[in-house]
Amino acid sequence: MRVRVRGMGSLRDRLAKLGPLSGNALDLELPDGATLADLLRHLDIAAGQVHLVMVNGSQERDSCRKLQPDDEVTLFPPVAGGAILARPQCRRSGRPQ
């Protein structure tokens, strides 16, 4: 079955090394009944390298989910960097002190 995989950030670069991208996506042939975990293994992407998975625009947390023909899977890497905001101490009123 054919599925389309989009990678965001560093995962887009990983996909580009596996084959030509069409509209920032890689079209793959997987066996019928393949799961999200099978897809990640096929792409040689460790689960820790993916923070969020979307299937057809909806967040998916179950790596055992079976993919369907023409599914579109989007992979988001963990986000790092940026400022760390200190959490203000709040009074009972809910407003910062």
- Globally, the shape reads globular
Portion of residues in beta strands equals 15-25%
Radius of gyration: 18 Å
- Average predicted confidence as pLDDT: 84
- Give the strand order, joined by hyphens, for the main sheet: 2-1-5-3-4
Low-confidence stretches: 81-97
Question: How would a crystallographer describe the biggest sheet?
Answer: 5 strands, mixed
Series of secondary-structure elements, N-terminal to C-terminal = EHEHEEE
Number of strands: 5
Number of helices in the DSSP assignment: 2
What is the SS-derived class?
alpha+beta
Helix content: 10-25%
Q: Calculate the terminal CA-CA distance, rounded to whole Å.
A: 58 Å
Verbal overview:
This protein is α+β, with helices and mostly antiparallel strands and 97 residues long. 15% of the residues lie in helices and 23% in strands. It contains 2 helices and 5 strands; from the N terminus they run E-H-E-H-E-E-E. The chain has helices at 10-16, 36-43; strands at 2-7, 25-29, 52-55, 58-59, 72-76. It has a 5-stranded mixed beta sheet. The longest helix is centred in the middle third of the chain and has 8 residues, at 36-43. The chain starts with a strand and ends in a 21-residue tail after the last strand. The relative contact order is 0.24.
